[in-house]
Input
Amino acid sequence: MFNLTEILNQAEFTKEELMYLLALRGDEQRKLFLRAAIIKEKFVGKKTYFRGLIEFSNICHKNCLYCGIRAANNKVNRYLLQKDSILEAVKFAYNNKYASIVLQAGEREDDEFINFINDLLVDIAKICNGELGITLSVGEQKTEVYKKWFDLGANRYLLRIEASNKDLYEKLHPNNSKHSFDRRLACLKNLQKIGYQTGTGVMISSPYQILNDLADDLLFFKAFDIDMVGMGPFIEHEQTPLFKHCKELPSLNERFLTSLNMIAILRIMMPEINIAAATALQAIDPVGREKAIQLGANVIMPNITPSLNRKDYLLYENKPCTDEGADECLDCLVARIDMAGDEIAWGEQGNSLHYQNRMKKRKE
Ligand code: SF4
Output
Protein backbone atom coordinates (compact mmCIF):
# COMPACT_ATOMS: atom_id res chain seq x y z
CA MET A 1 0.00 0.00 0.00
CA PHE A 2 1.20 3.50 -0.82
CA ASN A 3 0.80 6.53 1.41
CA LEU A 4 0.17 9.46 -0.94
CA THR A 5 0.99 12.20 1.58
CA GLU A 6 4.34 10.59 2.37
CA ILE A 7 5.19 9.98 -1.28
CA LEU A 8 4.37 13.55 -2.26
CA ASN A 9 6.92 14.81 0.23
CA GLN A 10 9.68 12.91 -1.54
CA ALA A 11 11.82 14.35 -4.31
CA GLU A 12 12.69 10.97 -5.80
CA PHE A 13 10.46 8.04 -6.58
CA THR A 14 10.84 4.34 -7.18
CA LYS A 15 9.39 2.90 -10.36
CA GLU A 16 6.50 1.38 -8.39
CA GLU A 17 5.74 4.76 -6.79
CA LEU A 18 5.80 6.40 -10.21
CA MET A 19 3.31 3.91 -11.61
CA TYR A 20 1.07 4.53 -8.60
CA LEU A 21 1.27 8.32 -9.13
CA LEU A 22 0.64 8.03 -12.87
CA ALA A 23 -2.61 6.17 -12.26
CA LEU A 24 -4.04 8.71 -9.76
CA ARG A 25 -7.41 10.22 -10.56
CA GLY A 26 -10.03 12.31 -8.71
CA ASP A 27 -9.16 13.80 -5.30
CA GLU A 28 -5.81 12.04 -5.10
CA GLN A 29 -4.84 13.38 -8.51
CA ARG A 30 -5.73 16.88 -7.32
CA LYS A 31 -3.34 16.41 -4.37
CA LEU A 32 -0.57 15.53 -6.82
CA PHE A 33 -1.34 18.65 -8.87
CA LEU A 34 -1.34 20.81 -5.77
CA ARG A 35 2.07 19.52 -4.68
CA ALA A 36 3.50 20.08 -8.16
CA ALA A 37 2.11 23.63 -8.22
CA ILE A 38 3.83 24.38 -4.89
CA ILE A 39 7.14 23.00 -6.18
CA LYS A 40 6.81 25.02 -9.38
CA GLU A 41 6.22 28.25 -7.47
CA LYS A 42 9.12 27.57 -5.11
CA PHE A 43 11.73 26.71 -7.74
CA VAL A 44 10.84 28.47 -10.98
CA GLY A 45 8.13 30.90 -9.84
CA LYS A 46 4.65 31.49 -11.18
CA LYS A 47 6.00 32.56 -14.52
CA THR A 48 5.36 31.38 -18.06
CA TYR A 49 8.00 31.87 -20.73
CA PHE A 50 7.04 32.28 -24.38
CA ARG A 51 8.83 30.60 -27.27
CA GLY A 52 7.51 31.74 -30.65
CA LEU A 53 7.16 28.55 -32.69
CA ILE A 54 8.01 28.74 -36.40
CA GLU A 55 7.24 25.50 -38.24
CA PHE A 56 9.33 26.48 -41.23
CA SER A 57 9.13 23.28 -43.28
CA ASN A 58 7.06 20.11 -43.34
CA ILE A 59 9.41 18.31 -45.72
CA CYS A 60 10.71 15.25 -43.92
CA HIS A 61 12.85 12.35 -45.05
CA LYS A 62 11.67 10.04 -42.30
CA ASN A 63 8.64 7.87 -41.82
CA CYS A 64 7.73 7.69 -38.14
CA LEU A 65 4.65 5.49 -38.05
CA TYR A 66 2.51 7.99 -36.09
CA CYS A 67 3.32 11.24 -37.88
CA GLY A 68 1.02 13.04 -40.29
CA ILE A 69 3.88 14.63 -42.24
CA ARG A 70 5.91 11.42 -42.68
CA ALA A 71 7.63 11.24 -46.07
CA ALA A 72 5.33 8.51 -47.38
CA ASN A 73 2.18 10.58 -46.85
CA ASN A 74 1.61 11.93 -50.34
CA LYS A 75 -1.54 13.80 -49.31
CA VAL A 76 0.55 16.50 -47.60
CA ASN A 77 1.08 19.83 -49.32
CA ARG A 78 4.85 20.24 -48.73
CA TYR A 79 6.46 23.62 -48.04
CA LEU A 80 9.69 25.27 -47.05
CA LEU A 81 9.10 28.85 -45.98
CA GLN A 82 11.04 31.57 -47.73
CA LYS A 83 13.78 32.97 -45.55
CA ASP A 84 12.10 36.39 -45.56
CA SER A 85 8.85 34.94 -44.15
CA ILE A 86 10.77 33.24 -41.36
CA LEU A 87 12.61 36.44 -40.56
CA GLU A 88 9.29 38.32 -40.44
CA ALA A 89 8.06 35.84 -37.84
CA VAL A 90 11.34 36.25 -35.93
CA LYS A 91 10.87 40.04 -35.93
CA PHE A 92 7.32 39.56 -34.64
CA ALA A 93 8.65 37.50 -31.72
CA TYR A 94 11.43 40.00 -31.04
CA ASN A 95 9.21 43.08 -31.22
CA ASN A 96 6.58 41.48 -29.00
CA LYS A 97 9.15 40.58 -26.32
CA TYR A 98 8.79 36.80 -26.63
CA ALA A 99 12.57 36.65 -26.00
CA SER A 100 12.81 33.14 -27.49
CA ILE A 101 11.89 31.32 -30.67
CA VAL A 102 11.73 27.67 -31.75
CA LEU A 103 12.64 26.78 -35.33
CA GLN A 104 11.01 23.47 -36.12
CA ALA A 105 10.92 21.38 -39.29
CA GLY A 106 10.82 17.83 -40.57
CA GLU A 107 14.13 16.00 -40.57
CA ARG A 108 16.60 16.45 -43.42
CA GLU A 109 20.36 16.07 -43.41
CA ASP A 110 21.16 17.31 -46.92
CA ASP A 111 23.61 20.18 -47.45
CA GLU A 112 20.93 22.47 -48.89
CA PHE A 113 18.91 22.24 -45.68
CA ILE A 114 21.94 22.58 -43.42
CA ASN A 115 23.17 25.65 -45.30
CA PHE A 116 19.66 27.13 -45.19
CA ILE A 117 19.75 26.95 -41.40
CA ASN A 118 23.32 28.29 -41.29
CA ASP A 119 22.23 31.38 -43.24
CA LEU A 120 19.08 31.74 -41.20
CA LEU A 121 20.98 31.77 -37.91
CA VAL A 122 23.36 34.44 -39.23
CA ASP A 123 20.41 36.63 -40.27
CA ILE A 124 18.54 36.10 -37.01
CA ALA A 125 21.59 37.18 -35.03
CA LYS A 126 21.64 40.44 -37.04
CA ILE A 127 17.93 41.12 -36.39
CA CYS A 128 17.95 40.54 -32.67
CA ASN A 129 21.55 41.41 -31.65
CA GLY A 130 21.83 37.96 -30.11
CA GLU A 131 19.03 38.79 -27.65
CA LEU A 132 16.66 35.98 -28.67
CA GLY A 133 16.97 32.50 -27.22
CA ILE A 134 16.97 30.13 -30.20
CA THR A 135 15.76 26.54 -29.99
CA LEU A 136 16.30 24.27 -32.95
CA SER A 137 14.08 21.25 -33.44
CA VAL A 138 15.22 19.73 -36.71
CA GLY A 139 16.09 16.22 -35.68
CA GLU A 140 19.14 14.02 -35.90
CA GLN A 141 22.24 15.58 -37.44
CA LYS A 142 25.98 15.00 -37.50
CA THR A 143 27.91 16.30 -34.49
CA GLU A 144 29.75 18.91 -36.57
CA VAL A 145 26.42 20.28 -37.80
CA TYR A 146 25.11 20.61 -34.24
CA LYS A 147 28.39 22.31 -33.31
CA LYS A 148 28.21 24.75 -36.22
CA TRP A 149 24.64 25.78 -35.34
CA PHE A 150 25.60 26.21 -31.69
CA ASP A 151 28.48 28.47 -32.74
CA LEU A 152 26.06 30.46 -34.92
CA GLY A 153 23.84 31.24 -31.94
CA ALA A 154 21.38 28.36 -31.41
CA ASN A 155 21.48 27.69 -27.69
CA ARG A 156 18.74 25.09 -27.18
CA TYR A 157 17.86 21.91 -29.01
CA LEU A 158 14.72 19.85 -28.75
CA LEU A 159 15.02 16.23 -29.86
CA ARG A 160 12.15 14.11 -28.60
CA ILE A 161 13.11 10.52 -27.92
CA GLU A 162 9.35 9.73 -28.17
CA ALA A 163 9.84 6.47 -26.22
CA SER A 164 12.85 5.82 -23.99
CA ASN A 165 12.21 2.06 -24.16
CA LYS A 166 14.07 0.79 -27.23
CA ASP A 167 11.57 -2.01 -27.89
CA LEU A 168 8.67 0.43 -27.83
CA TYR A 169 10.60 2.93 -29.97
CA GLU A 170 11.08 0.24 -32.57
CA LYS A 171 7.36 -0.49 -32.68
CA LEU A 172 6.61 3.18 -33.34
CA HIS A 173 9.18 3.58 -36.11
CA PRO A 174 10.13 1.65 -39.25
CA ASN A 175 12.79 -0.93 -38.69
CA ASN A 176 15.69 0.56 -40.64
CA SER A 177 18.88 2.58 -40.12
CA LYS A 178 17.07 5.90 -40.76
CA HIS A 179 15.04 5.31 -37.60
CA SER A 180 17.66 4.07 -35.15
CA PHE A 181 16.98 4.42 -31.43
CA ASP A 182 20.72 4.23 -30.71
CA ARG A 183 21.49 7.09 -33.06
CA ARG A 184 18.75 9.25 -31.55
CA LEU A 185 20.15 8.67 -28.09
CA ALA A 186 23.70 9.37 -29.31
CA CYS A 187 22.48 12.65 -30.85
CA LEU A 188 20.94 13.70 -27.53
CA LYS A 189 24.22 12.98 -25.77
CA ASN A 190 26.17 14.96 -28.38
CA LEU A 191 23.86 17.94 -27.97
CA GLN A 192 24.41 17.90 -24.24
CA LYS A 193 28.18 17.58 -24.66
CA ILE A 194 28.35 20.53 -27.09
CA GLY A 195 26.64 22.73 -24.52
CA TYR A 196 23.08 23.10 -25.72
CA GLN A 197 20.22 23.36 -23.27
CA THR A 198 18.99 19.94 -24.22
CA GLY A 199 15.34 19.03 -24.44
CA THR A 200 13.50 15.84 -25.13
CA GLY A 201 10.06 14.35 -24.66
CA VAL A 202 7.79 11.40 -25.24
CA MET A 203 4.33 10.60 -26.54
CA ILE A 204 1.92 9.68 -23.78
CA SER A 205 -0.52 6.78 -24.23
CA SER A 206 0.79 5.77 -27.64
CA PRO A 207 -0.01 2.35 -29.13
CA TYR A 208 1.85 -0.52 -27.41
CA GLN A 209 2.78 1.70 -24.44
CA ILE A 210 2.04 0.61 -20.88
CA LEU A 211 2.29 2.56 -17.61
CA ASN A 212 5.60 0.86 -16.90
CA ASP A 213 7.04 2.61 -20.00
CA LEU A 214 5.93 6.04 -18.79
CA ALA A 215 7.52 5.45 -15.39
CA ASP A 216 10.72 4.51 -17.23
CA ASP A 217 10.47 7.67 -19.34
CA LEU A 218 10.40 9.80 -16.18
CA LEU A 219 13.41 7.95 -14.79
CA PHE A 220 15.14 8.42 -18.14
CA PHE A 221 14.69 12.22 -18.02
CA LYS A 222 16.19 12.27 -14.56
CA ALA A 223 19.11 9.92 -15.32
CA PHE A 224 19.87 11.86 -18.51
CA ASP A 225 19.96 15.14 -16.58
CA ILE A 226 17.71 16.72 -19.19
CA ASP A 227 17.18 20.51 -19.15
CA MET A 228 13.82 20.82 -20.89
CA VAL A 229 10.92 18.51 -21.61
CA GLY A 230 8.03 18.78 -24.05
CA MET A 231 5.60 15.89 -23.93
CA GLY A 232 1.97 15.43 -24.72
CA PRO A 233 -0.78 12.94 -25.37
CA PHE A 234 -0.63 10.72 -28.41
CA ILE A 235 -3.24 11.81 -30.94
CA GLU A 236 -3.76 9.59 -33.94
CA HIS A 237 -3.57 10.81 -37.53
CA GLU A 238 -5.71 9.04 -40.07
CA GLN A 239 -3.05 9.02 -42.79
CA THR A 240 -0.54 7.03 -40.73
CA PRO A 241 0.09 3.30 -40.20
CA LEU A 242 -0.59 3.50 -36.45
CA PHE A 243 -4.10 4.86 -36.98
CA LYS A 244 -5.40 1.30 -37.06
CA HIS A 245 -4.68 1.04 -33.32
CA CYS A 246 -6.79 4.03 -32.30
CA LYS A 247 -9.71 1.93 -31.05
CA GLU A 248 -7.41 0.08 -28.63
CA LEU A 249 -6.12 3.28 -27.04
CA PRO A 250 -7.39 4.87 -23.81
CA SER A 251 -10.01 7.60 -24.37
CA LEU A 252 -8.70 11.05 -25.26
CA ASN A 253 -9.69 12.23 -21.80
CA GLU A 254 -7.68 9.43 -20.16
CA ARG A 255 -4.66 10.27 -22.31
CA PHE A 256 -5.05 13.90 -21.28
CA LEU A 257 -5.23 13.06 -17.56
CA THR A 258 -2.19 10.79 -17.76
CA SER A 259 -0.31 13.59 -19.55
CA LEU A 260 -1.11 16.01 -16.73
CA ASN A 261 0.15 13.46 -14.21
CA MET A 262 3.39 13.08 -16.18
CA ILE A 263 3.95 16.85 -16.07
CA ALA A 264 3.12 17.14 -12.36
CA ILE A 265 5.36 14.22 -11.36
CA LEU A 266 8.23 15.49 -13.48
CA ARG A 267 7.99 18.95 -11.90
CA ILE A 268 8.39 17.32 -8.46
CA MET A 269 11.27 15.11 -9.63
CA MET A 270 13.14 17.83 -11.57
CA PRO A 271 12.02 21.16 -10.05
CA GLU A 272 14.41 23.39 -12.01
CA ILE A 273 13.89 22.18 -15.56
CA ASN A 274 11.73 23.89 -18.15
CA ILE A 275 8.56 22.00 -19.02
CA ALA A 276 6.48 22.96 -22.03
CA ALA A 277 2.70 22.86 -22.06
CA ALA A 278 2.36 20.97 -25.34
CA THR A 279 -0.11 22.09 -27.98
CA ALA A 280 -1.46 18.51 -28.15
CA LEU A 281 -3.02 19.12 -24.71
CA GLN A 282 -5.10 21.91 -26.21
CA ALA A 283 -6.24 19.60 -29.02
CA ILE A 284 -8.08 17.54 -26.37
CA ASP A 285 -9.13 20.24 -23.89
CA PRO A 286 -9.49 23.88 -25.03
CA VAL A 287 -7.75 25.00 -21.83
CA GLY A 288 -5.42 22.00 -21.64
CA ARG A 289 -2.22 24.02 -21.81
CA GLU A 290 -3.40 26.38 -19.08
CA LYS A 291 -4.16 23.39 -16.84
CA ALA A 292 -0.61 22.15 -17.45
CA ILE A 293 0.73 25.62 -16.55
CA GLN A 294 -1.17 25.52 -13.25
CA LEU A 295 0.39 22.23 -12.20
CA GLY A 296 3.99 22.51 -13.30
CA ALA A 297 4.66 23.53 -16.89
CA ASN A 298 6.39 26.91 -17.32
CA VAL A 299 6.83 27.27 -21.09
CA ILE A 300 4.32 27.80 -23.85
CA MET A 301 5.05 27.89 -27.56
CA PRO A 302 2.65 30.24 -29.37
CA ASN A 303 2.58 29.35 -33.03
CA ILE A 304 3.88 32.29 -35.08
CA THR A 305 4.21 30.38 -38.37
CA PRO A 306 2.49 32.38 -41.14
CA SER A 307 -1.09 31.06 -40.89
CA LEU A 308 -1.27 30.03 -44.57
CA ASN A 309 1.18 27.22 -43.86
CA ARG A 310 -0.07 26.05 -40.47
CA LYS A 311 -2.71 23.72 -41.82
CA ASP A 312 0.06 21.81 -43.65
CA TYR A 313 2.03 21.04 -40.48
CA LEU A 314 -0.33 18.47 -38.99
CA LEU A 315 1.63 15.88 -37.06
CA TYR A 316 -1.67 14.78 -35.51
CA GLU A 317 -5.36 15.54 -36.05
CA ASN A 318 -7.42 18.44 -34.59
CA LYS A 319 -4.30 20.54 -34.08
CA PRO A 320 -5.52 23.88 -32.65
CA CYS A 321 -4.86 27.45 -33.84
CA THR A 322 -4.08 26.42 -37.42
CA ASP A 323 -6.14 29.21 -38.94
CA GLU A 324 -5.32 32.11 -36.65
CA GLY A 325 -2.73 34.82 -37.24
CA ALA A 326 0.04 35.36 -34.71
CA ASP A 327 -1.68 38.44 -33.25
CA GLU A 328 -4.97 36.67 -32.61
CA CYS A 329 -3.19 33.78 -30.96
CA LEU A 330 -1.21 36.18 -28.76
CA ASP A 331 -4.30 37.97 -27.46
CA CYS A 332 -6.08 34.78 -26.47
CA LEU A 333 -2.96 33.36 -24.85
CA VAL A 334 -2.29 36.39 -22.69
CA ALA A 335 -5.81 36.17 -21.23
CA ARG A 336 -5.51 32.42 -20.70
CA ILE A 337 -2.16 32.56 -18.90
CA ASP A 338 -3.57 35.27 -16.67
CA MET A 339 -6.55 33.05 -15.85
CA ALA A 340 -4.17 30.22 -15.03
CA GLY A 341 -2.63 32.49 -12.36
CA ASP A 342 0.80 32.90 -13.95
CA GLU A 343 2.52 36.03 -15.17
CA ILE A 344 4.06 36.08 -18.63
CA ALA A 345 7.80 36.71 -18.46
CA TRP A 346 7.92 39.27 -21.27
CA GLY A 347 11.44 39.91 -22.50
CA GLU A 348 13.00 37.15 -20.41
CA GLN A 349 14.63 34.23 -22.18
CA GLY A 350 13.85 31.90 -19.29
CA ASN A 351 16.88 29.68 -19.68
CA SER A 352 16.58 26.40 -17.84
CA LEU A 353 17.80 26.80 -14.24
CA HIS A 354 18.69 23.14 -14.34
CA TYR A 355 20.98 23.84 -17.29
CA GLN A 356 22.64 26.77 -15.56
CA ASN A 357 23.41 24.63 -12.51
CA ARG A 358 24.57 21.73 -14.69
CA MET A 359 27.03 24.02 -16.50
CA LYS A 360 28.31 25.46 -13.21
CA LYS A 361 29.05 21.94 -11.97
CA ARG A 362 30.76 21.11 -15.27
CA LYS A 363 33.15 24.05 -14.79
CA GLU A 364 33.97 23.19 -11.16
S1 SF4 B 1 7.98 12.79 -36.28
FE1 SF4 B 1 9.47 14.21 -37.12
S2 SF4 B 1 11.04 12.89 -38.06
FE2 SF4 B 1 9.22 11.62 -37.75
S3 SF4 B 1 8.13 11.73 -39.69
FE3 SF4 B 1 7.28 13.35 -38.35
S4 SF4 B 1 8.43 15.20 -38.82
FE4 SF4 B 1 9.55 13.44 -39.67
Q: What stands out?
A: The longest strand covers residues 52-57.
